[in-house]
């Protein structure tokens, strides 16, 4: 007797049900925090940044594939990568919106979220990051609008909207350049937020801004690659040509090598060649009280950079799509581990201590509360649900997929008053029998 597996439609509905339950758990946790304040979390004055800031930093980094691939298409003229650049823009938007949700919950006074826009503090790195996130999110929405218009027959009947989408498509190189500048600026500023704090020697590092950029490039492109390959597997059709997948995988591999090179030199400069007492004592505290050494060497270096680079750059392994998906997942996991290590390492070490006197104050301990996990799970569910629905309904998301709708670029020379072109028959929705 053969075991009959559930149909794809049933699996799709079960997946949506799982995401809905995760989202409900997240919403319930968020309401609890908003009604009762940050006192229900395990955050404190001594350890004010925890799981939510890790989600924030990871989401922004995993959205960095948007500026990298958009720059490749519109700035460097590599038009073939447009096959995956639109998906990267969607992943970027979901990453940045997820980061804003995490920050909204973490700031303690969410009713004042708009204050940085009105009350400028030009001497604050965090203020500069806030403005860059707001502006770059606007850039991502601008890049996504033509994709939404192309994917909807109803929207294509609205002539002013179609003309607006055509106009945005024409200025996309300018938008891509602006987006690249904004993203590079605030990705590096996130690293500088930690690297410039001399009061916390474990964080202080001139290479932190560049490390944040390189890790975001590797992780952002890997996130887009993994989402594309997994969607192709689930839908059982090729969304992106094989040569584009191969080129993007190699790009991830080279980004991992660049990150690994600077990462090891940064470690050597601060922990091997130099002997700053405060920094050495801080690393000893981390080694004795946390699994920092293990998560650094195994999680960040070996698991998150060395092995993925080997898979992405060795053709025999790169030709195996399952191996590429595994390598992309490892890069993403390594990036999340890095953001967790960076965020917690500085706070675990007590701020008020005297060099040469071991542990004058107790080491800070942190374990996320249930409501913190709930909010984080809800944010993840939001991004997964949005991407799932986008792959199903935005047929122009992958312009070179089997049965994809024609791109706006094919009609940029039509007369403004002409009716929108007729679309070919749409493929069956994802999850159909």
The percent range for helix content is 55-70%
What is the residue-mean pLDDT, rounded to a whole number? 84
- CATH domain class: Mainly Alpha
Stretches where pLDDT is under 50 for at least 5 consecutive residues are 405-433
Taking Cα atoms only, what radius of gyration do you get, to the nearest Å?
23 Å
Question: How does the overall form come out from the CA principal axes?
Answer: globular
How does this structure look, described?
The chain is an all-alpha fold and 433 residues long. It has a single domain, classed as Formate dehydrogenase/DMSO reductase domain (Formate dehydrogenase/DMSO reductase fold). Helix content is 68%, strand content 0%. The chain contains 16 helices and no strands. The protein has helices spanning 8-36, 51-62, 65-74, 82-106, 115-118, 125-151, 153-156, 159-170, 172-195, 208-235, 242-271, 277-289, 292-313, 315-318, 321-348, 370-393. α4 (82-106) runs antiparallel to α16 (370-393), α6 runs antiparallel to α9 and α11 (242-271) runs antiparallel to α13. The radius of gyration is 23 Å and the shape is globular. The protein starts with 7 loop residues before the first helix and ends in a 40-residue tail after the last helix.
């Amino acid at each position: 007797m053969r075991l009959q597996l559930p149909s794809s439609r049933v699996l799709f509905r079960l997946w949506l049900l799982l995401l809905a339950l995760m989202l409900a758990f997240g919403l319930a946790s968020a309401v609890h925090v908003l009604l009762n304040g940050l006192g229900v979390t395990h955050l404190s004055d001594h350890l004010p940044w925890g799981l939510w800031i890790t989600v924030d930093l990871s989401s922004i980094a995993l959205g960095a594939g948007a500026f990298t691939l958009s720059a490749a298409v519109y700035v460097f003229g590599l038009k073939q990568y447009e096959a995956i650049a639109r998906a990267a823009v969607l992943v970027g938007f979901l990453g940045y919106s997820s980061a804003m949700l995490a920050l909204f919950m973490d700031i303690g006074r969410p009713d004042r979220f708009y204050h940085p826009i009105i009350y400028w503090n030009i001497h604050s790195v965090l203020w500069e990051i806030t403005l860059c996130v707001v502006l770059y999110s606007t850039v991502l929405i601008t890049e996504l609008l033509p994709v939404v218009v192309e994917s909807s027959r109803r929207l294509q009947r609205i002539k002013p909207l179609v003309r607006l989408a055509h106009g945005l498509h024409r200025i996309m190189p300018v938008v891509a350049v602006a987006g690249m500048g904004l993203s590079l600026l605030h990705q590096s500023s996130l690293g500088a937020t930690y690297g410039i704090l001399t009061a916390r020697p474990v964080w202080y590092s001139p290479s932190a801004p560049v490390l944040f950029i390189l890790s975001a490039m590797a992780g952002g492109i890997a996130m887009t690659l993994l989402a594309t390959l997994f969607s192709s597997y689930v839908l059982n059709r090729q969304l992106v040509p094989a040569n584009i997948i191969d080129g993007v995988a190699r790009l991830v591999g080279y980004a991992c090598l660049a990150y690994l090179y600077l990462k090891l030199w940064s470690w050597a400069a601060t922990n091997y060649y130099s002997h700053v007492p405060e920094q050495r004592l801080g690393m000893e505290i981390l080694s004795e009280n946390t699994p920092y050494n293990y998560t650094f060497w195994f999680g960040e270096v070996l698991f998150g950079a060395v092995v993925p680079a080997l898979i992405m750059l060795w053709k025999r392994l790169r030709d195996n799509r399952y191996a590429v998906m595994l390598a992309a997942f490892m890069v993403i996991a390594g990036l999340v581990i890095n953001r967790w290590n960076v965020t917690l390492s500085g706070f675990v070490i007590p701020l008020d201590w005297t060099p040469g006197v071991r542990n004058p104050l107790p080491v800070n301990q942190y374990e996320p509360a249930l409501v913190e996990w709930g909010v984080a799970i809800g944010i993840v569910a939001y991004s997964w649900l949005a991407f799932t629905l986008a792959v199903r309904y935005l047929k122009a998301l992958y312009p070179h997929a089997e049965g994809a709708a024609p791109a706006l670029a094919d009609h940029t020379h039509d007369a403004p008053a002409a009716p929108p072109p007729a679309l070919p028959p749409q493929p069956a929705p994802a999850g159909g029998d």
